[in-house]
Amino acid sequence: MHDYAAMIRLAAAGDFWSEVNWPFLWAAFVLVVDNLVRIVALFVVPRNRRPTAGMAWLITIFWLPVPGLLLFLLIGGNKLPKKRTAKQEFATQIVGEIADREQAKLGTELVLLPVGISNAVQLGRSLGAQPMVRGNATSICIDYEESFARIATAIRAAKHYVYVEFYILVHDDTTNDVFEAMREVAARGVKVRVLLDHVSAVRNPGAKRTAKTLNEIGARWAYLLPVRPWRGQWQRPDLRNHRKLVVVDGEVGFMGSQNLVDSSYNKPANIRRGLHWRDLMVRVEGPAALGLEAVFLSDWFVETGEAMPQSIDDELRVQLPGQVDCQILPSGPGFGRENNLQVFVSLLYTAQERISITSPYFIPESAIMHALRAATARGVEVELFVSEIGDQAVVYHAQRSYYEELFDAGVRIFMYRPPYILHSKHFTIDDKIAVVGSSNMDQRSFNLNMEVSMVVYGESFVRELDEVNAVYHQNSRELTREEWSRQPLRSQLLDGLARLTSALQ
């Protein structure tokens, strides 16, 4: 009897489920989820985000709710994990204490600087930059292979330690001399430490050879911002450490735009196109080298947990070999929000006669555009050097989308001729101030990448950069408004679409 009743209930249940309108229920479920995603996005996405970026994300999510949400969850935040952030804050605190002692002994007398420049230097200091220090000697190198030769020579002179940190670091035929120099000094007991960005390392040819060589040398090395979830190492995957620097014994440093890799980056596509990168590296001798060392040690501590030195009083008794004043400006997640952008804009407003900017990926924030418009309005001559061709299609078209605005602002645009990619990142203001480093003039460098820049006050350094700009002029052609007005409709469409995607930060 009981079995019969159970059978009846099952049959009834089966009839019920067979009568359900499954397509309707599924459509209703999708509709609910679709609208729920959009409603939640309205509350979450705009919070603490630039209006342009917030709007771009909302458009993406409203257009493609589920894929847009997944993309936002993957790359929508620029915060580092709490554990890494805590390490970064501790490192910044230690570096700040060292910097205070450095400023007391070696700091530039800011009262001697022009008011605008002094304010920019103090702004940078308040946002995580190191103090401006006096007595540095600097030299610029724009020859790709010669730059490696200079680094190798400095490494071979090391007595105590060598610190090497690059966004892209590859052992190939072009960089072999640098690796051999590290091998030689390590063999005689010099401490060699190397940091390289993880994602860039695994994406570029030669990763296995590079790791094998570093192990054979006996160098201690680590990946920067590793993305290895199976090891508990995870953050937004496109948060990258983009710095390029070398420090030898706290006395000599190198920094700039050049990666430690062949000028073709060893990529088949670049080799087929005949592409080669053109870069700029600065050799600095004096107290500023200690600033670069502090940046490396901070990154080393965050990645390895190895404690930083608590005192560098002995190192503070350094020679003052030159007359140039330098301020090391690290930036990225973990520092004051967009501290490099804030310093750059502050400096641009000090211009009285001329501004010259070189940036391979020029996708300016509105603050930079306002500063450039203000500069030209008060009679300042502004020129911009970019590459005529690009190595990254989306970035290339996003950059082009700003050319009309730049023309309207009175900016002259010079395009470096192919097959070279002008990869240098620097700008000069009038005759006394310049900025060089790894930071592009784009939202990635301002918001996502770990960068290092150097603010340089000194007429001799600006003159040397002017000579570099003269070389750029010889190898560039000026883009005119008339030529730009003849751009095909297809290019205009791609430029506009790329500009929208550039705001997804």
Question: Which secondary structure elements does this structure contain, and how are they paired or packed?
Answer:
Blueprint: H1 2-19, H2 22-44, H3 51-63, H4 65-75, H5 82-106, H6 115-126, E1 133-141, H7 144-156, E2 161-166, H8 176-187, E3 191-197, H9 198-203, H10 207-217, E4 220-224, E5 244-248, E6 252-256, H11 268-273, E7 276-278, E8 281-285, H12 287-304, H13 313-316, E9 324-331, H14 339-348, E10 354-358, H15 366-377, E11 381-387, H16 393-400, H17 403-409, E12 412-416, E13 420-422, E14 426-429, E15 433-437, H18 443-447, E16 451-457, H19 459-474, E17 476-479, H20 481-485, H21 489-502
Parallel strand pairs: 2-3, 3-4, 7-13, 10-11, 11-12
Antiparallel strand pairs: 1-8, 1-9, 2-5, 5-6, 6-8, 9-16, 10-14, 12-17, 14-15, 15-16
Question: How would you sum up this structure, described in words?
Answer:
- The chain folds into three domains: 2-75; 82-112 and 131-324, Endonuclease Chain A (Endonuclease, Chain A, 2-Layer Sandwich); 339-502, Endonuclease, Chain A, CATH 3.30.870.
- The longest helix has 25 residues, at 82-106.
- Helix content is 49%, strand content 18%.
- A 15-stranded mixed beta sheet has the order 4-3-2-5-6-8-1-9-16-15-14-10-11-12-17, sandwiched between helices. The chain has a two-stranded parallel ribbon with strand order 7-13.
- The chain contains 21 helices and 17 strands.
- The chain has 505 residues and is an alpha/beta fold.
- Strand 2 (161-166), helix 8 and strand 3 (191-197) form a beta-alpha-beta unit.
